[in-house]
Write a structure and sequence with these properties.
NusB_fam, 74% helix, N-utilizing Substance Protein B Homolog, Chain A, Transcription antitermination protein NusB
Length: 147
């Protein structure tokens, strides 16, 4: 349950980060401080790796995600929450190797169910399922980079 809370908080934090450019410097630190009393040190570290990984690798993440979009969709046309959920899941898939792919996919779909739409849930599941089939290749494209 703690990891679910961490993922929800990461989604909310990254949404704030994207929507409030003037507050970007403080958003992640502020949210981490609020989360700290609610979770273990390991879960707090996961929160930081997840949020900072999305921020640090956003351009590369978007490039990879774009390669799995169909029907003339572009990353910029996706709803913000869906884009952030996909980025977070991809950071997990690439950098958190101890987390089984199925767990990451289920958590991403649950985030979409909670914060987005039924169509988004299906869309995110499809995109991530396609990525998982080529995860070794995707991981190699991030070789040498830290979360």
């Amino acid at each position: 349950m703690a990891r679910r809370l961490v993922r929800e908080k990461a989604l909310q934090t990254l949404y704030q980060y994207e929507m409030n450019p003037g507050m970007r410097e403080r958003v992640v630190a502020k949210e981490a401080d609020e989360l700290k009393p609610q979770v273990s040190p390991d879960d707090l570290s996961f929160f930081k790796r997840l949020t900072e990984g999305v921020i640090r690798h956003q351009e590369k993440l978007d490039e990879v995600i774009q390669g799995y979009l169909r029907n003339d969709w572009t990353i910029s046309r996706l709803p913000s929450l869906d884009r952030i959920i996909l980025r977070m899941a991809l950071v997990e898939l690439v950098f958190e190797e101890e987390i089984p792919y199925g767990v990451t996919l289920n958590e991403a779909v649950d985030l979409a169910k909670t914060f987005s739409t039924e169509e988004s849930r299906k869309f995110i599941n499809g995109v991530l399922a396609s990525m998982v089939k080529e995860m070794e290749t995707i991981r190699k494209s991030f070789a040498g980079e830290d979360a």
